[in-house]
Amino acid sequence: MATDKKVIRGKLSLFRGTIISDATVIERALGWTLRTYFFPKTNQQASDFLYYIIETSFFSFDKKISLYEQIPYFKKLKRYSKVINSLRFVQQLRNALAHWNLDEKMSTENEIIIYSPVTFKTRKLNDETMKIFREHEKILLKVFGWEQTLREKEELE
After folding, report:
1. Domain membership of residue 90 as a residue range
2. pLDDT beyond 80 at 157
3. Model confidence over 122-153: pLDDT tens digits?
4. Residue 29 contacts by C-beta under 8 Å, 6 or more apart in sequence?
5. Does residue 62 surpass a pLDDT of 50?
């Protein structure tokens, strides 16, 4: 029984590490997309905007997504609703992994269950969750022009 707990905790750590790390890359890609919308040319103002506004702790992932949602240019893009859907999926999954607790009793080696200590909502983490996350990640990195990052990730798999 002790090994089961160890395996479950190990898998949760793997899910957490991968998703939180990859969500951070997506958040940076979104930040860069916002910067280039407001400042298409790289100059001091563009750098200041990126480092002193977009990439500050005050400007959360949620605020970046909300800003993206309010810009008419992005709303007109063909893939807009797909992008918003993917951003919100990544954000919610990342937040759950960062703040929710492991339910050891309900978890198995193939399916980790986490729950919100506030709402007691649960979420299943398994290979299918990772597959869905990867699909959303691909959409976002392509739309935000981070194909090189996507290629590098695919080479590692």
Report:
1. 2-156
2. no
3. 999 999 999 999 999 999 999 999 888 888 87
4. 140, 141, 144, 145, 146, 149
5. yes
- Between CA 116 and CA 54 the distance in angstroms is 28
Number of domains comprising the chain: 1
The first and second tokens of residue 68, run together, are 């993206």
Average pLDDT estimate for 6-32: 96
- Tokens read off for 69: 């949602």
Over range 4-16, report the average pLDDT.
94
> Which residue type is seen at 30?
L
Contacts 24+ apart (CB under 8 A), 120-125: 123/93, 123/96, 125/11, 125/12, 125/15, 125/97
CA dihedral 95, 75, 146, 62 (to 10 degrees): -20
Spatial contact of 68 and 34, defined as CB atoms under 8 Å apart: yes
